[in-house]
């Protein structure tokens, strides 16, 4: 009896142990939906070109019904990688995709925009596609800078129209803070073109040589928990571009860019037509040498866009909305945003404005569109330059509101070199690109139905001599001005069509 009972217990223990071993083997077995690039010959040594191995893994993954292409720890030097439908490129911690410095390693894509026709990573017409993980994509932008450093070409203005005259251009060309002149370079670091259901999450991108993460004509995309740190000296190195995209969410990103931080519908005309709409951006920190947030200019409309809980710092412009053709920008909200903008030394576009909205003709033969229905709520800005709202003709900017906003203005060490001008580039004629003008904390020209409610203006120290008023409204119909304060109040509160009306603010 004892022997039989012992045998039964022994058999039961053996069966249990066998089941545990089977389970362990199953958990240790490779996932049938994961393709590792090293299996296809990738070395990850940073020297050999691993492009073919990565593309082979992607092709096998797609042929196998889709899944994950895994890039383990290592440095993988690559040229153009093409993502396919139902494939997610996963960059493990310790992995780095290093962009090749040889332009021959980049395969032209099917079309171009602004002569950008190559990309390090490209997905075209794909669905359920993305890049995720804890690894790094290194754009190797440093390999495409002209050495010794030279200034990037400046244009679209006539220095004789500026307050400083020829000195304005001369200071630009000293190239103290860039932008640097670039060699021939890849057009885009990562491009999703006419894709659906795109996810980019968790990865770090550094040193893009040109446009960085660019979505063009995509539908349904999530970009979150990204860290993008591009050189603040490299021109056109926008962090995130959304061109004619719909249903996009951007959240919880840290962005540094030598151009725009997040740009909607910039220069995607060459890729395909479409409207940019239903886009939300939340909880991001942005550093930019152009605009932290930019909408337009574009050949297509932008509408139904919201931004909230952003920090824009150390930037040449905080928020910029630009119409230069027949497009429209409508129904946009900015809420709970902190902006720190200042004049930047070099041929960058913008002159430190925390908020800039302009409608002006870029091509004299093209009728201009409009900006309508834009709300700024609880925006706090510290700047050396004014808020600028400028339309070249009446009716082009309408229904703009700043509510519960605070503007803090201070002098700049670059005032003598760049201050006291409006930057409206690009505009026709070019002589109106940067023009001398007396300024105010807020300058509005040809803006209808402007609402300022609970606007707090603080002057930090003595204003620069070219600041002549707290508010300057020229040819603005039906303004609504409530609870506006300017401290100290030595400057006039309001100039409207050349007449001072200090009591019209409700102060």
Question: What's the short version?
Answer:
The chain is mainly beta. The radius of gyration is 27 Å and the shape is globular.
Biggest pleated sheet: 22 strands, parallel
The number of strands is: 39
Shape: globular
| Rg measurement, Å | 27 Å
* Range of strand content: over 45%
User: What class would the helix/strand composition place it in?
Assistant: mainly beta
Number of distinct helices? 4
| First and last CA, distance | 101 Å
Roughly what is the average pLDDT, rounded to an integer? 90
Helicity level: 10-25%
Describe it for me?
The chain is mainly beta and 507 residues long. The chain has a 22-stranded parallel β-sheet that branches. The protein has a 15-stranded mixed β-sheet that branches.
Question: How is the secondary structure organized here?
Answer:
Blueprint: H1 2-28, E1 34-36, E2 45-49, H2 51-63, E3 67-71, E4 74-78, E5 81-83, E6 87-91, E7 95-99, E8 108-113, E9 116-124, E10 127-133, E11 136-138, H3 166-172, E12 188-193, E13 196-201, E14 204-206, E15 211-216, E16 219-224, E17 227-229, E18 240-243, E19 246-251, E20 254-257, E21 262-264, E22 276-282, E23 285-288, E24 291-295, E25 302-315, E26 317-323, E27 328-341, E28 355-359, E29 370-383, E30 387-391, E31 397-410, H4 415-418, E32 421-423, E33 434-436, E34 439-445, E35 447-460, E36 467-474, E37 480-487, E38 495-496, E39 499-500
Parallel strand pairs: 1-3, 2-4, 3-6, 4-7, 5-9, 6-10, 7-11, 9-12, 10-13, 11-14, 12-15, 13-16, 14-17, 15-18, 16-19, 17-20, 18-21, 19-22, 20-23, 21-24, 22-25, 23-25, 24-26, 25-27, 26-28, 27-29, 28-30, 29-31, 30-34, 31-35, 34-36, 35-37, 36-38
Antiparallel strand pairs: 8-9, 32-33, 38-39
């Amino acid at each position: 009896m004892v022997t039989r009972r012992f045998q039964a217990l022994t058999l039961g223990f053996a069966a249990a142990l066998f089941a545990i071993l089977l389970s362990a083997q199953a958990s240790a077995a490779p996932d049938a939906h994961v393709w590792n690039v090293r299996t296809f010959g990738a070395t990850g040594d940073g020297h050999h070109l691993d492009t073919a191995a990565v593309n082979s893994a992607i092709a096998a993954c797609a042929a196998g019904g889709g899944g994950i292409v895994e890039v383990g720890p290592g440095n993988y030097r690559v040229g153009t990688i093409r993502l396919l439908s139902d494939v997610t490129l996963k960059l493990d911690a310790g992995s780095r995709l290093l962009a090749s410095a040889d332009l021959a390693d980049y395969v032209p894509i099917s079309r171009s925009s602004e002569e950008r026709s190559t990309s390090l990573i490209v997905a075209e017409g794909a669905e359920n596609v993305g890049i995720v993980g804890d690894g790094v994509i290194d754009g190797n932008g440093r390999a495409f800078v002209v050495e010794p450093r030279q200034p990037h070409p400046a244009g679209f203005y006539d220095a004789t129209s500026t307050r400083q005259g020829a000195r304005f251009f001369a200071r630009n060309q000293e190239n103290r803070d860039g932008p640097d002149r670039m060699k021939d370079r890849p057009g885009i670091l990562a491009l999703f073109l006419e894709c659906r259901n795109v996810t980019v999450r968790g990865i770090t991108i550094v040193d893009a040589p040109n446009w960085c993460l660019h979505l063009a004509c995509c539908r349904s995309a999530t970009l979150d928990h990204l860290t993008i740190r591009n050189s603040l000296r490299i021109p056109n190195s926008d962090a995130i571009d959304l061109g004619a995209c719909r249903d996009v969410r951007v959240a919880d990103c840290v962005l540094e860019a030598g151009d725009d931080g997040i740009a909607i519908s910039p220069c995607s005309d060459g890729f395909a037509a479409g409207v940019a709409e239903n886009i939300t951006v939340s909880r991001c920190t942005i550093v930019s040498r152009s605009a932290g947030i930019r909408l337009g200019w574009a050949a297509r409309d932008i509408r139904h866009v919201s931004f909230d809980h952003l920090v824009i710092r150390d930037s040449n412009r905080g928020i910029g909305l630009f119409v230069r053709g027949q497009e429209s920008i409508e129904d946009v909200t900015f809420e709970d945003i902190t902006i720190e903008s200042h004049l930047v030394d070099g041929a960058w576009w913008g002159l430190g404005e925390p908020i800039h909205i302009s409608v002006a003709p870029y091509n004299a033969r093209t009728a201009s569109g409009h900006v309508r229905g834009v709300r700024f709520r609880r925006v706090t800005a510290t700047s050396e330059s004014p808020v600028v709202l400028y339309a070249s003709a009446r009716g082009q900017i309408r229904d703009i509101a700043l509510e519960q906003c605070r503007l803090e203005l201070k002098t700049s060490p670059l005032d003598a070199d760049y201050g006291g001008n409006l930057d409206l580039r690009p505009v026709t004629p070019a002589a109106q690109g940067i023009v001398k003008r007396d300024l105010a904390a807020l300058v509005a020209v040809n803006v209808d139905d402007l609402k300022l409610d609970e606007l707090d203006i603080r002057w930090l120290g003595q204003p620069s001599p070219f600041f002549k008023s707290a508010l300057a409204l020229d040819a603005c119909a039906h303004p609504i001005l409530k609870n506006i304060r300017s401290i100290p109040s030595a400057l006039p509160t309001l100039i409207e069509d050349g007449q001072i009306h200090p009591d019209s603010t409700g102060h």
